[in-house]
């Protein structure tokens, strides 16, 4: 059995300045060809060492091989035109240039399977691989073919399932689907969102997770959060649906969050990845602050189901800040782990 309060991260970490422009979403690559392929692998090795040194138990490749967590997958599919991009509004908050769907989508070849195999071979720790969820994919493109968010989501769910099965076969321990769109389209979550997510995860032999969140710490998201009021109760509807789903783990932001912590009780029966690191600020948490967040969550989540984690991806931060936050996460979890051992 693995140790209590095994730590993990949501997924992304900042890239080295020689690989992509720092502190930029969708930053273009600064290398080409074979040098780019080698540079990506070196960047993965670096983020693995940073996580291992910080005491992170279930590590990720920090999404070092992808320009963006959604579009890199979409661009690997048939039926997509990514040369003629369209500008759309993402989750009603900010504009982005996105690929356009021009025909039936299909997966001709694996997209991330080689990356997953490299990650598996580069560390002794348990590894997590992240994929976008179907609804979030639908929300990050222009659909000129299906003209139905639901139909397109089901098509993506089948493609994701093929990709996820191949990634799991590469020896990955956890596959996490990122569904920030679950926090915006509540009717769709009810009508088809959770079902499409389950389809994407169908038959996976590894642990399955879903990350839902209020978005990266970019200005458009921070401004949007200011409109949500003093208590964020949006998850009151979503959590019971996820608790009834076949997905094993739910990742949720708890550091500096206005999500009432007692809502975690609605996830009974699930592993909860408790975000104890705020990714919307450069201030590095102290281990004591991380421990405080974890103790609060422990009132509603049993210790053997609690996984200390980051609120969201850390790609918008500087590498130095991200490393400091990794260290704080590992050290804060160790404090509470020692307290629990003392109780035993
Ligand atoms: Zn997130």
Distance between the terminal alpha carbons, to the nearest Å?
16 Å
Task: Enumerate the distinct ligands.
Answer: zinc ion
Number of separate structural domains: 1
Biggest sheet: strands side by side, in what order? 1-4-6-7-8-9-10
CATH fold type: TIM Barrel
Q: How many strands, what sense, and barrel or not for the largest sheet?
A: 7 strands, parallel
In the CATH scheme, the class would be: Alpha Beta
Q: Give the proportion of residues in helices.
A: 25-40%
Seen as an oligomer or otherwise, the chain set is single chain
The number of helical segments is 10
Order of helices and strands: HEHEEHEHEHEHEHHEEHEH
Hey, roughly how much beta strand do the residues contain? 15-25%
Low-pLDDT segments: none
Structural class: alpha/beta
- What best-fitting shape do the alpha-carbon axes yield? globular
Q: In the CATH classification, which architecture applies?
A: Alpha-Beta Barrel
| Average pLDDT for all residues | 92
Structural Rg = 19 Å
Can you count the beta strands? 10
Q: Could you please describe the fold and organization of this structure?
A:
This protein is an alpha/beta fold and 344 residues long. It has one domain: TIM Barrel (Alpha-Beta Barrel). 38% of the residues lie in helices and 18% in strands. The chain contains ten helices and ten strands. The chain has helices at residues 33-54, 71-74, 113-121, 134-138, 149-169, 186-200, 219-226, 235-243, 287-298, 319-343, and strands at 58-59, 78-90, 94-106, 126-132, 142-143, 174-178, 207-211, 249-253, 271-275, 306-309. Helix 9 (287-298) links the parallel strand 9 (271-275) and strand 10 (306-309). Helix 1 packs parallel to helix 10 and helix 9 crosses helix 10 (319-343). The structure holds zinc ion. The site of zinc ion (ZN) has 6 residues, from loops.
């Amino acid at each position: 059995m693995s140790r209590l309060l095994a730590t993990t991260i949501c997924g992304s970490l900042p890239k080295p300045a020689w690989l992509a422009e720092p502190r930029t979403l969708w930053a273009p690559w600064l290398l080409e060809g074979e040098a780019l392929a080698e540079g990506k692998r070196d960047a993965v090795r670096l983020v693995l060492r940073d996580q291992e040194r910080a005491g992170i138990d279930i590590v990720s490749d920090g999404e070092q091989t992808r320009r963006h967590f959604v579009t890199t997958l979409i661009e690997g599919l048939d039926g997509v035109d990514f040369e003629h991009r369209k500008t759309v509004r993402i989750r009603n908050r900010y504009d982005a240039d996105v690929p356009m769907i021009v025909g039936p989508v299909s997966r001709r070849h694996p997209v991330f399977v080689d990356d997953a195999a490299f990650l598996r071979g580069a560390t002794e720790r348990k590894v997590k691989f992240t994929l976008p969820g179907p609804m979030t994919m639908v929300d990050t493109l222009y659909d000129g073919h299906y003209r139905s968010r639901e139909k397109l989501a089901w098509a993506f769910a089948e493609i994701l399932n093929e990709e996820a099965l191949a990634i799991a076969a590469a020896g990955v321990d956890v596959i996490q689907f990122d569904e920030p769109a679950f926090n915006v389209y509540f009717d769709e979550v009810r009508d088809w969102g959770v079902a499409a997510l389950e389809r994407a995860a169908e038959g996976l032999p590894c642990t399955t997770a879903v990350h839902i969140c209020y978005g990266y710490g970019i200005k458009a998201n921070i401004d949007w959060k200011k409109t949500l009021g003093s208590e964020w109760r949006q998850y009151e509807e979503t959590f019971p649906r996820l608790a009834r789903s076949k997905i094993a783990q739910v990742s949720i932001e708890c550091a500096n969050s206005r999500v009432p912590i007692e809502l975690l009780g609605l996830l009974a029966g699930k592993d909860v990845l408790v975000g104890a690191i705020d990714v919307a600020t450069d201030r590095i948490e102290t281990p004591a602050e991380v421990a405080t967040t974890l103790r609060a969550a422990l009132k509603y989540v049993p210790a053997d189901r609690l996984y200390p984690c980051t609120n969201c991806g850390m790609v918008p931060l500087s590498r130095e800040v991200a490393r400091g936050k990794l260290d704080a996460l590992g050290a804060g979890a160790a404090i509470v782990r020692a307290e629990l051992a003392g109780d035993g």
